[in-house]
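Local shape tokens:
==================
===
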Amino acid sequence: MSAYLCPGKKEKPISSALLGELGISVEEAYSEPHCMARVAEAVQKENGDIVCHLPFASTVEAQQWGVAVSISGLDNSLLPGESIASNPGELLERLAGWQLESGPVADVLSAIHILAGRGRKAVLNLQGPFSVLGLLLPPRELLKSFRKSPGLLEEACRIITGQLAEYAGRAAACGAAMISYSDSFLSPGMLSPAVYERICAPAVLQAVQAVAASSGGIPVHICTRSMWLLRDRPGTEIIQQEVADTTYGEAVLSAVPLEDGSRIVVNGCMLRSAAYIKSGKISLLKILK
């Protein structure tokens, strides 16, 4: 079996052939809950997976705040349009609270509820605050803001984190079996170590804490592209657990809660949830009080 190394993209994007077999349009696959659930089940079966992943795009959170999207004619992926603000100050004026009963996040939550009702193990793919900011603001302006207006950026992260935690909590209430958290906008070398230490790592840690606290004890998986910000972070500890010869998805679902009830798993890539673990271990992040 293949190792669960991060491929950096979906292994099997939603193909036109698959949608044709299901009689579902691309638009319906992204916006109609029953169609979303059917596509998720079909992809699960095609991948030989134990879990269904939703949503199929990393733009949903930004869409909820007004970012327009278009469908790529190459691979049926969603392409984000223009940012909703030109700077952090303007963005703060537009970061109104979500209404989880409407919009793209409501469609995802409904699809998760449908899958849970069918006995499926649904995974909510959740984007972290910096990935969301990278769509709400022009990327170049976001990078400049780390230096020019860090206070405004931190406030934006705080607001976004609160909404993400509420979204994760609602997904758990709808029957999600796992939250898969990713904040892949940031990568080593983009900013100075001092900025990472002062702004990025604390914001990501706060986001992970908030999502885990809101998720009712279901596993929260942190992708390898996000985990590097938390590695060896003061106030954290890595706890290893032995697992049976099983797939990565199954191992994460069966992770034993730590003393505080959390199950924050940090050592693999959820895009490879159907791959088998070779090490016999998974790693959990313990956040010290």
The beta strands are 51-54, 69-71, 78-80, 121-127, 178-182, 220-222, 236-242, 264-265, 281-287. DSSP finds twelve helices and nine strands in the chain. The CA atoms of residues 196 and 229 lie 8 Å apart.
